[in-house]
Structures are given as C-alpha cells and as structure tokens.
Amino acid sequence: MTGEERRNEILQMLKVQNVPLSGTALAAAFHVSRQVIVQDIALMRAENHDILSTNRGYLFRRGDSADALPKRVFSVRHTTEQVLEEFMIILDLGGKILDVVVEHALYGQIRVDLLIESARDAREFYDKLLKSKDNPLKVLTDDCHYHTVAAPSEKLLDLIEQELQRRGFLH
Predict the structure, then answer these.
(1) Can you give the pTM of this predicted structure?
(2) Long-range contacts formed by 100-107: CB under 8 A, 24+ apart
C-alpha cells in the first residue's frame, strides 16, 4: 500500500467515526509506526482536510452541532488541581470546552483541540493529566490560558462567565 492509499483509507476511517481514533490504533491497523501516522495526518491537514488532534486521538471535523453554537473565549488562570473544577463549571452549565490556547512569548499562539463535551470526557482528561509526565500548556504562561467554549445560547455563555468569575477562574 502506498502512502497516498493509506492516507485515503485513514481519511475514510475518520469520516465514519464519531469517536476519536488514536494514532496507536491507526498505526496498528496499517502496520506502520505511530510517527508515520502523525506524518500522514500532517500531510492530510496540509491538503485542507479538517482533522482535529485531541488527547483521545484524531477526529474528522464535521459541520456538526458545535459549529452552529454560540462561542466565547474565556481568559482563565488556575492551578492544575483546579482543572477538573473549571471543566465541570462549564459542563454543568451546558457548555463544551472546544480548545485550550496559550500566548507564548517566543512561539506566539499555541492552540490544542480538547473537545470536552461531558463529565466523562473531563474526568478522562484530568486522569491523563495527573498520570502524565508532561505538563499542561498553561505552565508555559504562568497558568494563564484561554478556552473557547460553545453553548446552546448566549445566555448560558453569560452564566458560565459569571460562575467562572464568581469562583475566581477568570483572568
């Protein structure tokens, strides 16, 4: 199988999945290394395929419900121990955490898709964070970072903002 054929198959797999596919799973399916998959994804993105990289794997972005929802970017600051609390505030009020962004002095804006849509997603992310030897992006910017949050209405985004402010998360 050529690289182009593999990338076409990966793209088709991603398009039919509703859950992220890990690089490790894709590597096993195609009998290549995970690094080959990472390179394939980079090439597909360069061809304007809208593929998201999440902490759970790769996902093809569709024109789904999150795209149609109102969105707001929140500037927040908190400790690593408060990550789950912050996520749960947003989720409990009907929001979805789409990404995390930091403004790095040297590299500029660094953005990572999160797609935290449920309490389960939040707990899985937080568990990985606690078990990981790597640090979250916020450590690069003295815990300051941004989240794009989507919600069914502007009113809910207002409530999320008010609660984040009340709990001392907004920066």
Answers:
(1) 0.69
(2) 100/136, 100/137, 100/138, 100/145, 100/146, 100/147, 101/73, 101/145, 101/146, 101/147, 101/148, 102/137, 102/138, 102/140, 102/141, 102/144, 102/145, 102/146, 103/141, 103/144, 103/146, 104/140, 104/141
